Amino acid sequence: MVFSSITFLLYFFPVVFIVYYLLSFSRVCQNIWLLLTSLFFYAWGEPVYVLLMIGSIFFNWMFGLLIGANENQPFYRKLYLIIACILNLGVLGIFKYSAFIADTINRLLLLDLIPILHFRLPIGISFFTFQALSYVIDVYQNKAYPQKNLFAIALYISFFPQLIAGPIVRYTTIEDQIYNRKESWDLIVSGICRLSEGLIKKLLLANNLAIIADTIFNLTKDGDGSVAVPALLAWLGALAYSLQLFYDFSAYSDMAIGLGMMFGFTFPENFRYPFAASSIREFMSKWHISLTTWFTQYVYKPLGGSRNENQDKMVKNMFLVWVLTGLWHGAAWTYIGWGVFYFCFILFEVIVKMDQSAAHPIIRHLYVIIVTLLAMVIFRCENGIQLLVYLKNMVCLNKNGFLSSTALMFIKEYGIVLAFAILFSIPTKDFIADKLAYSTSGNMILISSQIAYIVFMPLLLVFCIAVLAKGAYNPFIYFNF
């Protein structure tokens, strides 16, 4: 079950919402209701693997208690932490990486030494595993108290708005909210608007951009370069996919945050206009913020972070973090290449002190956009052969020429979608609001626009539901990770 489906919007969510507020007399009953419906939500798409998630909930709760109970026994605390990490990462590794590792070893040895077992990847396993791990590690580091109530941990890990594709929420962020959150009409209205905004991004922008991106990238799917893909068309495909990925994933985050608001929860933002960044380091700090924060807090800093006096070690730690970040997205060399690609540019920016650069802002933004488009090509291509062909197409090395009538056709047919996608990928709304704040009639216009937003977003939600009723199923991209 996905947020952008009739089943969720017209049946599941309304029932969950109405019953939740009918249970307002008891926070415990509300939490039990949210837990049961969250498990049902996951079981709808994963009727077998829901048992895997329940198992993850139980043993992480248990290890949190064991670590907390051995406060004065550092050896056992560390031992329980290591076992918890091995179990969590082991389960993730079996389902997500076992076939990749076996295939890589067989290729290196030129032997079919290890049998390759293909497991269907449980939806959202990367997200709920990292969330569970953050809880255990925070308890070990005395940043969180061990939760004795199993149902509280179960709700934290399985809560349906952020279960499948994030944001990855730390336990300390919502620990107090589990029992002491406060619902209000303002939060409900804001949540409906944020939900509507995410649905609009998904249906009107991401899904249409997907048509452009999939059509262009599929031309090089065979990897033989036999289909002429002019450079303009290749760059358009890279742009369309970059924007598609941004709107697809940020749409899910918007909807998750909006749904959380309607139940009184506050989740952290996952995107902050990354395409407005003036360096790759800044871009990655604004893209999938919860994942970047997770690796920073639980991998990079424990290894020494940027305070490490040994610069060689610091570079090695950065490299490790970015390889792991690439691997988190999927078991393929292209994902590892994507991570290493970003590592190289972030290291370059550290060496040349990019944050102190006197280069014109436009040049810096152009640099970020070009690097990002190339990175997204690495991310999108299915293998190294397709990647090489696609990159050669982008620089006219396949005797493919530059101009493309197909690219012009896409621009003509989807020009409005592309224009809005580019316009809203940067803080256009914030810029207009700042300008209005300093104008004579700015406050009145600003208040009017806020009222219009509150009125029209629910109407657009109804429109999106009508579009869904006629359209086809189109899952969120990050369900694959």
**Overall pLDDT confidence:** 87
The portion of residues forming beta strands comes to: under 5%
Helix fraction? over 70%
Give me the number of helical elements: 21
What kind of assembly state do the chains in view correspond to?
A: single chain
Q: Give, in order, the helices and strands.
A: HHHHHHHHHHHHHHHHHHHHH
- What structural class do the secondary elements suggest? mainly alpha
Give the overall silhouette.
globular
Largest sheet: none
What would you report as the Rg, rounded to the nearest angstrom? 24 Å
Low-confidence stretches: none
Spatial gap, N to C terminus? 16 Å
How many extended strands?
0
3D architecture notes:
The chain has 481 residues and is mainly alpha-helical. Helices cover 71% and strands 0% of the residues. The chain has helices at residues 6-22, 27-45, 50-69, 74-96, 98-109, 125-140, 150-158, 160-163, 171-174, 177-180, 185-218, 231-262, 280-286, 289-300, 311-329, 333-351, 361-380, 384-394, 405-423, 428-437, 442-470. Helix 12 packs across helix 18 (384-394) and helix 16 packs antiparallel against helix 17 (361-380). The two termini are 16 Å apart. The model has no long low-confidence stretch (mean pLDDT 87).
